[in-house]
Every structure is written in C-alpha cells, then in structure tokens.
Amino acid sequence: MMQIYWTKINHIIEETSEVKTFMLDCPEDFTWEEGAHTHFALEGFNAGEQPNRALIRHMSISTLPHEHSIGITTRIREQCSEFKTILRNLEIGSDVAIFKTHSNVPLKREDKNVYLLSSGVGLATFRPLVLDYFERPDNVGHMHSLNIDSSDDFLFSDIFTSAPDKTFTSQFVDNRGDYYEQVKALAADKEGVFYVVGSDEFLLQNINVLREKGIHPEQIMLDKHENQRAEFLSQDVSM
Question: What is the pLDDT of residues 53-62, one digit of tens each?
C-alpha cells in the first residue's frame, strides 16, 4: 500500500511577487534526500473512487531534512490552474498530503565540477544540492549555477550568490540566446556533471547543446525516472 502522509502548512514564504514556498510539518517517519521530488496533493484528492489528478502535482522539495520543514516552492500566476488557485488560498494550518517521494538528482560526489542548469523556479530543485555542497564540499570540484529568469526578481538570492570561498558561482541571464551561449561555454569542461531542471522542451534543448559539445549522456542528470531519462537522452541530437 502506498503511504500517504497528511501534514499541515506551518509557514508560507513570499519568495517573489509570483513565487511562494509552502513549508510543511515533517511527519515522524518521513525522510528525503537532496534533489527529491514528491507528489503534493490537496484535500479531497482521494475522496472519490479514483484520485482526482487535478488536485495532485509533482513538486520538488526545496529544503533539506535538517531544516525541519518540507519546502514546496512554486510559481502562482494571476491566471492559473484549479490546483494553483486552491493553493493560493490555503493558509497556515491547512492540511495537504505528500506521497511517492524519490530523488532522481542527488549530488554526485565524483571529484568533478557540477553545473546546475535551470529555468525560473527550477532553482527550487537545486537549492538543497547547493546547501548540501556548502555543508560538505567533499569530492565535488567547483559548483556553478546558471539560471534563465527574465523577471529580475531572482529566487533564493541569499544562497544563489557567488561565494569564491565555497568555490561556488551563480549566474542569472534574462534571455535564451545568452543562456545557451553560456551553456556552450560551460560544456568546455568535458569531465563535468550537468544537472538540468525545467520544462521538457527546456531539457531537450539543453541536452542537444550539451551533446553537440561532446558531453556524454551519463554526464547529464535529469529529474526524471530512469526510463524517462533514457528516452530524453536517446533523442536525435541534430533535431
């Protein structure tokens, strides 16, 4: 039987004008690792015979266990889905459910440089990896984050700031042209490990650029189950 953890929102952080982080109480035996995602569901999702998929979303956990809260960071625009509309109106103390938690992108410690490539709120997936690296830099060379965000209202700016003493660099660009030029430049590191988080289209574009620059599929980490990852990485590079 799949275990569903019901828990409460204990804090809501307004990260930017459109992005909120919902902090959830940690159920007693709930554990996760950096790079984890979970199924995040609203009340009523399992009220009928079949789960109501409109009330379930696949979300990254933007915190680490020692922060004692499960952080779910998401963008909520003015015009949004039923799920986001309900979420926007939830308050501290509201009940939500989490289940099927898994990490496809834990931090690889292979004495290589790590490149985090993301779009907008994709940074939420990488926040725990950066924190984990800051706390324990063992067997990671340099870490570099590249994010495309046209809002100028950058997420987690307290963490995603270049810190030479921690051999960490953070870069934000506001357009695709500059972004992909930077990806090409980073791909000069033929030994690097490249993590990519964003929409499926974004993943495919990044994979194409990296593959054309000679980066091998095993160096590209996607927040996808292994069979989906293989599918993304097997697409024709010249498309």
Answer: 999 999 999 9
pTM, two decimals, is 0.92
Q: Which fold has domain 112-233?
A: Rossmann fold (3.40.50)
Cα 121 from Cα 109, distance rounded (Å): 25
Q: Which residues contact 164 (CB under 8 A, 6 or more apart)?
A: none
* Cβ count near 120 (within 10 Å): 20
Residue (of 230, 233, 14, 221) closest to 129 by Cα position: 221
Q: What is the DSSP letter of 66?
A: G
Q: Taking CA 68 as the corner, what is the angle to CA 57 and CA 75, rounded to the nearest 5 degrees? A: 35
CATH 2.40.30.10 in the chain: give the residue spans. 5-103
- 123: tokens are 């940074």
Specify the DSSP class assigned to residue 217.
G
The DSSP code for 180 is H
Name the H helices within 63-174. 82-88, 123-135
User: Per CATH, the architecture of 5-103 is what?
Assistant: Beta Barrel (2.40)
Going by DSSP bridges, is the β-strand pair 112-119/140-148 parallel, antiparallel, or unpaired? parallel
Q: How many CB atoms lie within 10 A of CB 191?
A: 11
Confidence at residue 109, expressed as pLDDT on a 0 to 100 scale: 97
CB 222 within 8 A of CB 210: no
